[in-house]
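Narrative summary of target 7.
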Amino acid sequence: MANFGAYLLFDGNCAEAMAFYQSCLGGELSVTTVGDSPMKAQQPSRHHQKVINARLKSGAIDMSASDWLHPTRTRQAGNTVCLYISEATSSELRDYFARLSEGADPNLLDSLVEMPFGLYGALTDKYGMRWMFQGSAE
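Modeled conformation, tokenized:
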């Protein structure tokens, strides 16, 4: 079963921000840097200390985050909070992605691709909402 939550994108201070949220909300926090991930070889060394994924779980709260790592787009107000579907099967993810991409901005579409951590994609739907997708690569 897929999870639905928020995904936050920070400008190099993701670990600090998520530790703050944990101090406010409680729960379990996991933080992985680029340098400690399978993506290390695909990122420049200046990004190795940045957070590739952080997740805070506290009761019904389940939020994820990372530092901005997109090589061709600029972080700005409006693209730093995403709707996030995660832990979905490949078929669930492909179905959600196909439906939500109808009328989506083709310039802001990152097709579903297999990454070292699973299937990943993102899009901005026809209403201007940013979605991120992550699930198992079956």
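Helices lie at 14-25, 90-100.
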